[in-house]
Amino acid sequence: MLLAMVLTSTDSARKRLGRWWKLLHRIGMWAFWTIFSVSPYLGAIHTMEWPDANPLLDPYFVVGVAAALLKLAAWQKARAKRRRT
Question: Which of the chain's termini has less CB crowding within 10 Å, N or C?
Answer without folding.
Answer: C
